[in-house]
Amino acid sequence: MARFSDQIHTLKYLFIAVAAIQLVTAASGTIVALYFAQTGASQEIAALAPAAYSLGFLIGCFYIAGWITSIGHIRAFSAAAAICAAAALLFSVTENEPTLLIVRLMTGVATAGLFAIGDAWISETVDEKSRGRLLAVFAIILGLMSVLSQVLVIVTPDDLNQSFVLMSLLYCLAIVVIAATPSAPPEGKERANVRFKALFQDAPTAALGALTVGIVSTVFMNVVPYRAAVIGIDAADVAIGIAAIYVGRILFLYPLGFVSDRMDRRRVIVVTATVATGALAAFATFATGDSARHSAIVGTPLYIAMLAGLILLGGSMLTLYSLLLAHAMDRTVPVYVASSAVTMLFVFTIGGIAGPLMTSVLSAVFGDAVMGWMLVLAMAVFAGFTAFRIKTVAPAARAEQTHFKATETTSLKSVPTQKR
What we know:
The chain has one domain (4-183, 190-400): Growth Hormone, Chain: A. The protein contains 18 helices and no strands. The protein has helices spanning 4-10, 12-38, 43-68, 73-91, 97-125, 128-148, 151-154, 160-179, 196-202, 204-222, 224-230, 235-260, 265-286, 291-297, 301-317, 320-330, 337-366, 370-392.
């Protein structure tokens, strides 16, 4: 059995390549939103972009990723990254909205393939004893890349075309690194099936939560930056706010997971969802006005309080998926653990499509300001439903609880599989 350090060394090239992909993927949500604001697109169009991306991700994750690995992990990874690089460059040369929506769709397809290949490579290379620790290291790396991703916006605030060029260069870096890796990729394995009805029957809190988090997080991370730019907030300030949200996830994810392993996990989920609801309500209430109001608070204690609120929002909104996945595993028969995890990602991605579409329609009918309150209502309904389930349904038996594990919403493989 290989030592843990040896396994890290074997996968270091893959880690570098996927870290570059995560850096670009996390940055693209902000950059694309700012680009649509810069070109004068409506909020309805800006909301369709993440919907197109999520639809592409759904197609790539569940219908294409398995096919492309048949040509080999390295060639499939390189081809998918090349598609993403070309897509980034297209944003720098055209403002045609239908074309750009198609480009985001294709980016979603290719990105799903990239993360599916990375997950499979890691899961099939390391032994069972080391897998949990290695995936934890991987999750920390991806989290740090999410925070650092906003640097791409900060260093090019006045010319987003430069940001797209930098994104393309990072995709090319990932291709070079993965193509030069001296380690042999593993053989592909069959993927678990989606069990949509069974998930809603066995763990309705997890199922509704995954849908809600998909709706709320996709809209907030991909449409809110557009709204901020439209009212005149600088791109660098928008990026700092998004980075604060990602910092919140890093700070709160493992402490919340640790606590949830030692009690009815739904209690941690309902508190986290309630905090997220409050943070979203504060945002919907105070995130109005124009750039002059924002500029007036920069450097003041109120600005620090705003960043703290965004960290709290990230620590609640972006940690919920991992908590919900662990809860789903608590309620799942061991033989169906992998299928339930795949279904959770499927439901989350459906939310990522539905949320922006709802935003687009509601913005057209009621105006742009309705977006914030739509997110508040969605999270409040979920928190209320979870509280109701706690009162009416007994918690999972202690012996049936899984051990919490940080899980990315790009992963088909990183799932908690060990029962107590």
